[in-house]
Amino acid sequence: TLYDEMATELIESRNWVKEYMMTAILFTPKSSEYTHKRKMKTSENISKKKISLYFKERFPKVYNWLNYKKTSYKNSNIKSKNYFNKGGSLLAYEIQKMEAELWIHQLLKEIPEEIIYITIHDSIMIFNPTNEQIDFVEKKVKEIGRKLYNIDVPISIEVSINKVIH
Questions:
Q1: How far is CA 161 from the centre of its chain?
Q2: Chain-centre distance of CA 61, in angstroms?
Q3: In 3D, which of 77, 67, 73, 99 has the Cα closest to residue 87?
Q4: Residue 141: is it exposed, middle or buried by C-beta count within 10 angstroms (0-12/13-18/19+)?
Q5: Is 89 left (phi over 0), alpha (psi -120 to 50) or beta?
Q6: What tens digit of pLDDT does each residue of 19-57 get?
Q7: 120: left (phi over 0), alpha (psi -120 to 50) or beta
């Protein structure tokens, strides 16, 4: 939802937003402020600055939290294999752990056995779902998000019917 909203506001593609959010905000060697100080005027640096400055202005609490977490991780005693970006690597790992906790460790325990599904990153694909199954999964995702993180997890439901032709 965040990437979609940002893409609309910046008049960019969702893929562009996601790529530059990762490189300019999460995976900078230091804090995101590092991106603002880059001197070279390459198109990549210009794009990184554009997304970083926009994100800082539009979502200041999240921006500041991400910078705080990266700095905390960078200065911590936690071991990281990424010498050049310890804070960003540990933050990415923490975010992935949060996704896994919601989608795999919590949600999948709640899904009835008769539902056939697979998970893909931060989503779930249910094969031949009934409306009741869709409603059940949507309700559980929201319930677990509130329980774990005290947030309403934005959820988008797309239904696709695939027909096999012989």
A1: 27
A2: 16
A3: 73
A4: buried
A5: alpha
A6: 888 877 777 665 566 665 666 677 877 788 888 889 999
A7: beta
